[in-house]
Amino acid sequence: MQISCGSVETIIHDHLKMSKVSARWVPRNLTDHDRARHVATSQEFVDLFESDPDKFVWQIVTGDETLVHHWDPESKVESMQWRHASSPPPRKFRTLPSTGKLMATIFWDSKGLLLIDYLPPKTTMNGQSAVEAA
Questions:
Q1: Whole-angstrom distance, CA of residue 18 vs CA of residue 22
Q2: What is the C-alpha to C-alpha distance for residues 78 and 64, in angstroms, rounded to an integer?
Q3: Which of 2, 27, 89, 131 has the most CB atoms around its CB within 10 Å?
């Protein structure tokens, strides 16, 4: 088309009012069934609260899972230091992070921690239980 990049940018930004944006991360792409299940669960929570508001918070148990790395090297940004202009720059040796990691499942309630469970290495967690990977 033999048009400059600057002209293309002007047309896209100024005339067409377009801009380049990144996608926003969302937790899940829920199906209609999942949404209906969330509504039903929320209604159960409302019913529990209305039946005994003082006891409601003490009945909730929640959980989460996370990957626990055996060793996590310090990043370049984390290792930055304030230095005088005349002092030599700090040295950081190249290292490789460990590939070892475990899945930790954690449960807690309003009083504190209830359980931390580690999934054995080379196993996969599904909806029913941990199944050993092939």
A1: 13
A2: 27
A3: 131
**pLDDT of the chain along its 134 residues, tens only?**
788 989 988 988 888 888 877 777 777 778 899 999 999 999 998 998 999 988 888 888 999 988 877 665 667 777 777 777 787 877 766 666 556 778 889 999 988 999 998 888 777 776 655 555 44
Instruction: Give residue limits of the domains in the chain.
Output: 60-132
